[in-house]
Amino acid sequence: MVQEFAAHSPIAQEFTSQSRSQRGEAALPALDYDLAIVGGGIVGLTLACALKESGLTIALIEARIESAAVSRGQAYHVNLLSSRIFEGIGVWEKMRPGVNPIEQIRLSDQNYPGVVRFGLPDLKTPALGFVSEHRVLLDELRAFLAQCPNVTWVCPVEVVSSEFQADVVELTLKQNDQSWTVRSRLLVAADGARSPIRQKVGIETFGWQYWQSCVVAFIRPEKPHENIAYERFQQDGPFAILPLPGNLCRIVWTAPKQEAEAVLALNEAEFLAKLKTRYGDQMGELELVGDRYLFPVQLMHSQRYVQSRLALIGDAAHCCHPVGGQGVNLGIRDAAALAEVLKTAHQQGKDIGALRTLRHYERWRKLENWKILAFTDFLDRLFSNSILPIVILRRCGLWMLQHLYPVKQIALRLMVGLSDRTPKLAKIETR
Ligand SMILES: Cc1cc2nc3c(=O)[nH]c(=O)nc-3n(C[C@H](O)[C@H](O)[C@H](O)COP(=O)(O)OP(=O)(O)OC[C@H]3O[C@@H](n4cnc5c(N)ncnc54)[C@H](O)[C@@H]3O)c2cc1C
Questions:
Q1: Rounded Cα distance, 223 and 220, in Å
Q2: At what angle do helices 134-145 and 42-50 cross, to 10 degrees?
Q3: Which of 111, 315, 329, 381 is the most exposed place for a label (fewest CB within 10 A)?
């Protein structure tokens, strides 16, 4: 019955054309899946791609049309672990021409002359990380889905309700005034920081809004950026410069909320003049490319990541301060960890939606995410501070980072994502 409705609905036609164009076949998608992933952002897409050869049937449901999702003016620090996860999936080679390597990281504290430099010899890798525009990652992950015959891309369709039963979750999907039901053994919420699914099932969160907001923009400097990433700690918040292809730079300017709003409201010339006071002269004149955006900054951690038939990943489970550019990397690691847990359970004939299975994922990821959330919070508080003993303490810390090799190694490995358990996907033989 449902199949019949499905076959004649516009949603089904959208499914069919997506499936046809992506896979070169004309079959209607089934309405029963092993796994339904809600949210086709970078994290949800990574999970679906990582499950390519799992034998699990997957519906990946995304509310926003492709152009709206892809055009989001965001750019990310993609750490080494995330790049290795993408490599393990088989999508990194395609992403690589669109991303920029980071060959040096410079940390500095206001006007203190001691700059901490992390370079390639410190890690003995060809890059310390990468910087990518949102659309580059999204485009390549979406293209990769076309090679995943077990994944049905359901878009633009919104999940409006979820009904949890003992063995199955029933999702109601909506497109315009048509609705549709899909069943799956497990629901994965990759639906972002406001996660309607997390809220609907009543999973509590811990956290706070920071006193700061973030202004982000693309800048083209006059001189080459030389693949250097900067994190400059100022009293009112960290200021980051990330190198992108085409000698573009992404700035992430954190400031108290009112000040950030005032920065956003400046006209272009005033904005560039103020920016120069943060940016410095090392790259010559600056040109603003595209729009500026303002983002609220929050720390949020879900009390639980799982319950029977449900797992939260990415921003649906946690959000952190943008210092260090860790947010999306935590989500990519969640996706790789959950994929590993689900593949193992499936191979062993276990129920992928059972709480016992999902707890393996929660135990793996919750503590690791806590560490990064706490670390980014600590960094922001430590550096946005002018109390003399704290200033002395952090400058001692910077000195140790620059001069004590083991301390430098610990900090660097934490930043690039190599300090915790590595998902199997990221363990590539040749490294
Ligand atoms: C200023 C700023 C700078 C940042 N810089 C960095 C950085 O340098 N490095 C880094 O790692 N991270 C950074 N982050 C964090 C990063 O942006 C997020 O961690 C990341 O985008 C989260 O991805 P996600 O896939 O979990 O969620 P999202 O990208 O929010 O995706 C959720 C998806 O779910 C869909 N959805 C929601 N509800 C439904 C529904 N009911 N039905 C169907 N679909 C639904 C949405 O349309 C959306 O596409 C930054 C964040 C900010 C604010």
A1: 9
A2: 30
A3: 111
Closest C-alpha to ligand 1, atom 29: 41
Q: What is the pTM of this model?
A: 0.92
CA atoms 355, 357, 363, 365: torsion sign: negative
Assign 189 to helix, strand or coil: strand
Burial (Cβ within 10 Å: 0-12, 13-18, ≥19) of residue 417: buried
Q: Which residue has the tokens 């954190």?
A: 254
Q: How far is the CA of 403 from the centre of ligand 1 (A)?
A: 37
Around ligand 1, the residues with Cβ closer than 6 Å are 38-44, 61-64, 69, 74, 76-77, 158-159, 190-192, 196, 214, 216, 252, 295, 314-315, 322, 325-329, 331
| Per-residue pLDDT of the chain in tens (431 residues, 90 and over written 9) | 222 233 334 444 444 444 434 443 333 445 899 999 999 999 999 999 999 999 999 999 999 987 776 666 789 999 999 999 999 999 999 999 999 999 999 999 887 888 999 999 999 999 999 999 999 999 999 999 999 999 999 999 999 999 999 999 999 999 988 888 999 999 999 999 999 999 999 999 999 999 999 999 999 999 999 999 999 998 889 999 999 999 999 999 999 999 999 999 999 999 999 999 988 888 899 999 999 999 999 999 999 999 999 999 999 999 999 998 999 999 999 999 999 999 999 999 999 999 999 999 999 999 999 999 999 999 988 888 888 888 888 888 888 888 898 999 999 998 899 988 999 999 765 44
Torsion of CA 362, 365, 368, 369, to 10 degrees: -90
